[in-house]
Structures are given as structure tokens and as C-alpha cells.
Amino acid sequence: MHKAQYTSEARRPKRPGGPTRWHIVAVILIAVVGLNVGIVLTLIGIYWVSRAAQPPAPGPLAMLQTVMPPLPTATEGGPTPEPTATLPPPTGVVNILLMGIDERPDESGQPSRTDTMMVLRLDFDNRTARLLSFPRDVWLALPNLEQYGLTEGRINTAYYYGELYGLPGGGPQEAMDTVTLNFGIPLDHYALVNFDGFTKSVDALGGIDIDVPERIYDENFPTDDYGYMTLIVEPGLQHMDGAQALRYARTRHQDSDTERIQRQQLVLLAIRDKAISLNAITRLPELYAAVSGSYKTDMDLRTLLTYGVAGQQIDRSQITTFAIDQSYLAGWTTEGGANVWIPQRARIGPVIEEFLARP
Q: What is the mean pLDDT of the chain?
């Protein structure tokens, strides 16, 4: 039920220029990375199997062949050889900053804040993955902004300021520098997605299934037209389309950022599970149509493919989630009256050490 209630918050100023255009295949894989790198791992694995069984379709699939070697053909009367990748397997560890951008339909191309920020740590040697989430209202030191009179702020403003002031590397680099400075986590890559791309990509996968642990009732869920709606999500197994999944991941008025982080991680793992459960390669046309202009990454196509081929070997049981939630933070009110969270370094240290530790 939509309420005829609107905020008085001014819209952010327009920024010249439109969304960046990306290589077709890279956009498809970026979409998957932006939602959850686990889906990339699944898609690439499915790709190898399906490619052995049928000729490539025109379009995105055909373009994949330009960077992948041909598979051996079956011999007369003999068994069909197993598809194998010849891309060199990655080794060591890679840390990827995943960001969801708070960008409404009428704000495309403008500087935006991050609504979600996580670090995905892939250990290719030990075939493990870890996911660390940050609350958007944690108050941190912001690097590279002294000349603009800024030295600290919410973590969700780092990307915004990097874009607004045109810093080297833009918003992604400022966000990466902020995470590294405050938490000591070295970052190798980034991937980001806006709300529209997230919604359409989940729809292209046919929706997701989430076992909702408790009832959600949010009378003040923000809408794209700057109003509010009442969001109700019942407990138990729920099938969600893209819009429902996004609302479930974003709501936080009935509880706190701690529960919100847990919901976001549930959504990401549900997306991964859905990709595994179906022949996702058949969805590439829908994914391509859904994600154009909605995603961005610094990983080139070969890097994505290499990570995907190796990452498909990571079992679900080897994916661990972490969160810097409110048990590691202290509430504080800024001079401007904003309620934020201050990191408690002594408590956070062991969490970061565990997240970065290798067997």
C-alpha cells in the first residue's frame, strides 16, 4: 500500500554525461559479479558444459568464444571428451569490493552514495570464499579529500565524494582507499551495481527463494518517487522477484543495520543458489538486456573468466560470512545532529584478522 507522503530532502544536483557503455560480454559477467561473484563461478562452469553439447548461439555467447579456446570434438564412436578450460588458473588470494549504489531512475550518471558495501575474499589455493559486510552509517576517516575540507564521514559517502570531486580513479578508488585505510584490507578489484540492474538481473534469473527468519513490517520504506510505502514480508520460504528482493535487502526501519546486513547476505547467497539450480547460460540474453549501463568493474573479461573457471570449485560449505555490525560499534551524534557509528578498533581487530587469515 503506497502512502501519499513525501520527504523534503532536495534531490542531488545533476551531473553531465550519461552511463558508461561496456563491452557486451563484460557487462553480462559484471552483472553477475556485482550481485555475487559466486554466480560468475556458476555461469562459467555451466558455460563449459553447455558449449560441449550444442553450437554457440549468436550474440553474447559467440563473443565468449573470442577469448576461450575451442573444445575438442568427440571422436567417431568414442566418448565425448570432458570440457576443460585452458585459461591459466589463478593462485593466491583476491579481494574484491562489492558495492550497491543508491541510484534512483532519474539519477543515472549522478554521484551516488553506496547503499551496500562488502568485501569478497577468494582464496584460490584453498578453495574458500569469505564475505565481509560494512554498515553504511559507520563513521570513518576519508582519504584524499583534505583539499575539499573533508577528513571524515560515513563510509557510504566515500564513493559519492570520489565521483563528485573527480578524484583519480573516481568513486571506486576512493571507496577502496577508505576501506583499506580504516580496516587494513588490501583490495584488488571492485564491482558495483545500481538498484535497477539488481532488480532486472534477479528477474532474469527467474527470481530467488529466501527462507525469511522473521516477519518484516516497515511503514516507511522509501520509493523511487521520494515517497514511502508499507513493506510486509512474512516469515518462511518466500519466492521473490527482483523488486521484492531489493526491498527485503534494503529495509531497516523495524530493526537495525545488523539485521539489514544479515538480510543482504541472505539475498546474495539465494542468488548464488538459484544460479546453481538452473542452466543459467540460457539466461544470458535476458541478463545482457537487464544489465546494460547498470554495472561497472575494473576487471577485464579474461580476469572474470579466469576467476570464474577456478571459483566454480568453491563449495557452498566453504563460503563464510562476516559483518562489522553494531556489536563492534558505538553510537555517536555528529555536530550536525546525524546519528552514526564509531568503530571500536579493539573489538574489530580480531574480526579482520580472522577474515584475512589463511589456513
A: 74
Nearest-angstrom CA–CA distance, 35 and 98: 8
Q: What is the DSSP letter of 292?
A: T
The two most distant CA atoms of the chain are separated, in Å, by 78
152-154 and 236-240: which strand pairing?
A: unpaired
Confidence of residue 313 (pLDDT cuts 50, 70, 90): confident
Mean pLDDT of 40-53: 37
- Non-local (6+) Cβ contacts of 56 within 8 A are 62, 64, 65
Domains of the chain, with CATH numbers? 20-206+280-356 (3.40.630.190)
Looking at the chain, how many residues does it have?
359
Strands 329-333 and 339-343: antiparallel
Let me know: does 207 contact 230? Beta carbons within 8 Å.
Answer: no
CB 83 within 8 A of CB 49: yes
- Nearest-angstrom CA–CA distance, 130 and 136: 19
Asked if 325 and 225 touch (Cβ cutoff 8 Å), the reply is no
Read off the pTM.
0.72
* Closest CA relative to residue 116, chosen from 156, 174, 167, 86: 156
Dihedral sign computed on CA atoms, order 273, 229, 31, 49: positive
